[in-house]
User: What shape does this take?
Amino acid sequence: MKLLFYSHFFAPSVGGVETIVRDIATGLATVPTVTGSLEFELTLVTQTPAANFDDRSLPFRVTRQPKFSELRRLIRSSDVVHVAGPAILPIVLSRLSRKPLVVEHHGFQTICPNGQLLIEPQGTPCPGHFMAGRHTECWRCNSAPGWLASRKLWLLTFVRRALCSQASVNLTPTRWLGELIHLPHIKTVPHGLAPASQPTPRTAPSDPPIIVFQGRLVTTKGVRMLLSAAQILREQNRRFVLKIIGDGPERSSLEQCARDSLLENCVQFTGRLSGPDLEATFANASLAVVPSLGGEVFGLVVAENMQRALPVIASDLGAFTEVLGDCGVIFRTGDAKHLAEAIDSALTNPDAASELGRRAARRVDEQFSQRVMVEAHAAVYRHIAH
Assistant: This one.
């Protein structure tokens, strides 16, 4: 079966979408038939330049920044088209070519003009103004670039929604997202993680305890609110070290915020870490905090920390609560005081927190397997291709 994957963002760009798309495509490219041949001939199309990334290291073909005519030819020659996110052009070309179409939703672009389900510039969760018909709220929310840009985002949300309603299947990684976007032909396939090749041994609890945040340093990730919670804990004489792993456009302003709050002695900005450095940091940690304000449809970093058997404290976004189940601690989104209370409780009761971490690791093994994710995608393609 000739399978075309379209993902606007891909390696070497770093992010959750890029990671999941690569894992699915890699898995599908190695699925055998009963005769031992490969079932899928997969081509991945992206608008991300290769830079120094070697596409030959992947088990599938990658086409970058194709011209319109080449994209149309690739779609016409495919048996099934999979679009990661509601990208308008490949969806339109797929419909014109009458190809079976799968749209996998990695954001809220069909129900929110800014795709984050977040009210800008306050950075507070949106109650769903677009779907409720409160369109003046949407115009106001996205007015920073000007009224014309705001109306364009709003109109494109209608277009994406109409196009996705014609997809053969709309895939979502959580049932919560499926209920929220409310499109036809919804199927939930959770994101999956590869088995830990060699679990990093947990070290003895450090003194002071280490709290870890990992993510891109942007407004939606809630780091500024996490710093407010850290300030509350310091005022209560709670000893800890907060390690903020990652980089992004807000790093300098967040570092300044930490200095202004007199948190330099207990907050460390590590930048991006990977491989042994990253795992060593988590091995010494007491808990992980995921304080996102919005924009989350699954919570890959939540699942990754669950797999490490690390106790997780996360905001009560629908995706996070579904992934965590009863194996983590939830706090009210955007509430620094409630987050500080959750952290204090976890550090005061380390045995109970460790038990949550062990249960979380079992939950990932049972429900968020990369193998199951790939097999579920393959089953969808087989079904709609016949």
Q: What stands out?
A: The longest strand covers residues 2-7.
